[in-house]
Structure formats: C-alpha cells, structure tokens
Amino acid sequence: MSKTEISADQLIATYREENIARVKLAFADLDGVHRGKYISLDKFADIAGGTSGFCDCVLGWDVNDQLYDNATFTGWHTAFPDAEYRIDLTTERRLPDEDNCPLFIVDFISDENGLHPVCPRNQLRRVLQKAECMGYSVRMAFEYEFFIFDETPHTLREKNYQNLTPLSPGNFGYSVLRNSSLSDLFHKFMDYCEAMNFPLEGLHCETGPGVWEAAITVDDALKAADKAALFKTFAKAFFNKRGLVATFMAKWSMDYPGQSGHIHQSLTDGSGIGLFHDVKGQHGMSTLMRQYVAGQQKYLKPFLSLCAPTINSYTRLVKGAWAPTAATWGVDNRTT
C-alpha cells in the first residue's frame, strides 16, 4: 500500500506494536512559522480519521503572539473559536532525536470540509489545483542561507543581539578547511535532514562568519514547500540541541551582506516532461517559460509581501549585497 493510501488504523496498529506513546503535530502559521503540539497515541487514534481543532488565534498571531491589528478572520470580535483541522497522514516523518516519535503536518479545513480560507498550506493547494486544471504539474526546490552562532537563546537576549560569537570567524565561502574542521557537525546535520525526509543535495560554507547554505532536494511543489518550512524549524532545533543558534533572518548585522533563499521552479506535463526547455528557443527557453518569467516580473511588487514580509527583509534588499533591487531577469546572472 502506498503512502497516499495508508490508513489511520494501520498507523495506529504500527505505533502500538512499536510502543509509540505520542505523536507530534505541526502547521505553518501566516508567517510560515511552525506551531503545534504533542498528543497522546489514544488522542491520535480518536482524531486521525476525522478532525480536531486549534484555537483560531494561531491564524492571526504574529511571531510574538500578538494579533495582527487588521485581522478579520480571528480576534476578540470572533471569541476565538476552534479552527478545525485534519491530519495529513501522508506527511508522516519520524523524529530521529525523539525516539522515532511520529510527526505529521495538519491542514485546516473550512466549514464545508474543504480548503480553509486562511491556512497558508491550503492557499498553495488552491494554486496547484489551478495549475493542474491547466495541465501543469509544479516542481520546486529551495535553498537557504543561515548564520550559526555559538550562543544560546538566553545569551542572545543577554547580549541584546549584539557582539554575537559566530560558529566560525571571518569570510570563507565554499571553504573545505572549515567543513573539514567541522565535519562531524556537517555529516550529522545532513544525516538528520535525510532522516527527516528533507534530504540535502548540497551543504557548504557561504561568505560570512558562521554562514552555511543548504540546497534541499527537488520535489513536487506541496512536498517541497513542506520540506522547506520543516527544514527551517528543525535546523534551528538541531543546532539548539548542540548549544548553538541558527538564524534565517534576512540581515542580522549591517556589517554583512545578509542571507537569502532561492526557489527553483519548473512546470511539467502529465508525463513528467519539463515544459520550460525548448532547444530551438532563445537561451533554450520555451514560450511558456518566457510567459512564466514575465508574470513573475509583472507581479513581483505584490509578491514582496509574501517573500519579504518583515522590516528586516528590506535591510537585505539593497544594492551591492547580492540581493535583487529591481524587477529584472537574466540568464545565469547574479548581478541584475
């Protein structure tokens, strides 16, 4: 039986055989931050084939648990009822550093048992459904740059987020010396990502003190987005457990270029053949790919509310910092 056909009863029977005591649930909020909880195996058995709920404030909070002041979906005016969710049983992962505790992603659902109007994962589902109706399948791969500090959450606050000690000093992009000196950490992290089902096809030191860059393996768009969000959450957890802190913020210090993420995108037909390549087209680009790039260029400004959602994002988007500052496109071009 494939993973898409697995039943709740099968999972529960397996967990009981393995003496699994609990399950972890997670969902991405409006800022892409994972929230969730542990539930007992008995509770999982009660809801795995049905639904349960989280207080709907989780779909209106910012990263500091403050309600967005212009929210209409939730707030004091709604009395904070439960937002109903369903566990996506196809997303099971085992947490390698939690005695193989299962982890699942949940989807919020509407009153009609359909796609939720606010849930970010459901918004992606809507876009993918539209693409499917047009005859397209979407493939994506994410890359992330992140700083690692020899700090703890407490020392960060004690230092007021200044004069932090990086994992390694100075600039040394693609350093073999550094990844060899820290080889145990590199190998353990890549093994961890493999076990968590967001395997990395590449990991290296980037320019900057304690900066790494990870390239997550390509997948279908929904799975790729799940992997990208989970990677950021559990990378932080991985390093926290080792007395370190990882941050993905766009620019933690004005002394360094900052860090970013890349989203590799492609469209395929029903048989998996790529639709962006045309050997006869200029630069090998098909007409569809040119239209796709044109659409992104046209709507890049409103897209910024999604890909650059914080004030800190715009400290990164400046000239000379290896970051885009205009709605342009190029071929193998990192400057314009």
UniProtKB/TrEMBL annotation:
Keyword Translocase among UniProt keywords: no
UniProt-recorded Gene Ontology molecular function terms: glutamine synthetase activity
Keyword DNA damage: no
Record-level GO BP terms: glutamine biosynthetic process
Annotated GS catalytic domain residues: 120-336
Entry-linked SUPFAM superfamilies: Glutamine synthetase, N-terminal domain, Glutamine synthetase/guanido kinase
Gene3D superfamilies the record matches: Glutamine synthetase/guanido kinase, catalytic domain
Pfam families assigned to the protein according to its UniProt record, in alphabetical order: Gln-synt_C
UniProt keywords, alphabetically: Ligase
PANTHER family the UniProt entry points to: GAMMA-GLUTAMYLPUTRESCINE SYNTHETASE (PTHR43785), TYPE-1 GLUTAMINE SYNTHETASE 2 (PTHR43785:SF12)
UniProt protein name: GS catalytic domain-containing protein
